[in-house]
Amino acid sequence: MSRLTTLKPRLKAIDTRRLKTLNSEELRVTGSARVGLKRRIYTRDDGCCCMCKRFVELRDSELDHRIALQFGGGNDESNLWTLCVECHAGKTARETSTRQPDREALKHDVPAGEGLPVTIV
Ligand SMILES: [Zn+2]
Q1: Does residue 52 surpass a pLDDT of 70?
Q2: Domain locations in the chain?
Q3: Other C-beta atoms lying within 10 Å of the C-beta of residue 47
Q4: Chain centroid to CA 71: how far?
Q5: Is it the case that residue 35 has pLDDT exceeding 90?
Q6: How much distance in Å is there from the Cα of 102 to the middle of ligand 1?
Q7: Cβ(70)–Cβ(24) below 8 Å
Q8: How many other C-beta atoms lie within 10 A of the C-beta of residue 64?
């Protein structure tokens, strides 16, 4: 029975470091899809910042999640709006310091827009 040898285990432990969890960054819309989306939301918002209501040029406007992804906000258009650079910076700073959705932002609504599909829940 000298030929009997121990078989090497064929199953390896899974290296969990290689398993990526789906985090908020991966939900982010990027690239050309984002450019088109930004323009569409900008048009819906009549080219105005949704917080201070000032008119902003498209190139100066910022597409923002009213409720940030990290706080459970979605990528649907009812959670997306146009902000000016100043409002966006202020909102982000408040969210970072409180680690909560920005209360100032929640006082403002996302414009319903015309001709956009309305989701009835
Ligand atoms: Zn603004």
Answers
A1: yes
A2: 47-108
A3: 14
A4: 10
A5: no
A6: 14
A7: yes
A8: 23
3-class DSSP string for 23-86:
CHHHHCCCHHHHHHHHHHHHHHCCCECCCCCCECCHHHCEEEECCCHHHCCCCCHHHEEEECHH
Nearest Cα to Cα of residue 54 among 80, 87, 27, 29: 87
| Distance in Å, CA 47 to ligand 1 centroid | 11
Q: Is the separation of the CB atoms in 48 and 108 below 8 Å?
A: no
Rounded distance from Cα 31 to ligand 1 centre (Å): 24
Residues 86-100 as b or e (16 or more Cβ within 10 Å = b)? ebbebbbebbeeeee
Q: What is the pLDDT of residue 43?
A: 96
Per-residue pLDDT at 119? 54
Sequence letter at residue 64: D
- pLDDT tens for 63-120 read 999 999 999 999 999 999 999 999 999 999 999 999 999 999 999 999 987 655 555 5
C-alpha 62 to ligand 1 mean position (Å)? 10
Distance from residue 55's CA to the centre of ligand 1 (Å): 8
